[in-house]
Amino acid sequence: MADIVESYRSSGYGNKMGWGSRPALLIIDVCKAYWTPGSPLDISDNPEGAASVDVMRRLLAAARSSNSPVVWSQVSYSHPDMADAGLFWKKARTLSVWQKGDSRGLDVCMEGLEPAAKDTVVVKKYASAFFGTTLYSELQVLNIDTLVICGVSTSGCVRATTLDAMQHGFRPMVVGTACGDRTPEIQNANLFDLNAKYADVVSEEEAAEKLKVGWS
């Protein structure tokens, strides 16, 4: 692994993007589907994935303490044949957990990770929280320049949203321990690549400190 890291660094990857002065916490797709045994999206067999929920709760508390903006993405499909999921449905039948009327109740928020009335919530149908939503314009109106990103899954919606955040001019700070995926290998490979090219992968402690300070 050390050889790979050195290879990336010598090639010019892995530079620090750095924090802006107006961070918001962005919590991606957090719901019971990811931490319920028997769910098609369950990541709780991965200890890091299981632990990510409590990290997100602490980050949310840090953001609340300074009134830093909190933004949530959620998923929802209303068409009885999942037509509003497009080609995504052909690849990922797991999306049915977010279909209106699904009886499993897996789309319910996790305890302690529920949006407040003042928070921004965007509803999406694809991986990126930017695609087909009002997220970009809402962040612009709030004058946010940095996104503290956490949620699930690291290889899917976290990755897609992080890439789009950078491409839209927001500084993505991905809190690795506050993101989850099915296996440590998938988690670590995606965090490595995001940190190399598209974001800064930061610790819980660094992110919490920035959120507690709020806007300067």
What topology emerges from the helices and strands here?
Blueprint: H1 2-11, E1 23-28, H2 47-66, E2 70-75, H3 88-91, E3 120-124, H4 135-142, E4 146-152, H5 154-167, E5 171-180, H6 184-197, E6 200-202, H7 204-213
Parallel strand pairs: 1-2, 1-4, 2-3, 4-5, 5-6
Short account of what is shown:
The protein has 216 residues and is of the alpha/beta class. The protein is 37% helix and 17% strand. Strand 2, helix 3 and strand 3 form a beta-alpha-beta unit.
Description:
The chain has 216 residues and is an alpha/beta fold. The protein contains 7 helices and 6 strands, in the order αβαβαβαβαβαβα. Helix 2 packs parallel to helix 7 and helix 5 packs parallel to helix 6. The longest helix has 20 residues.
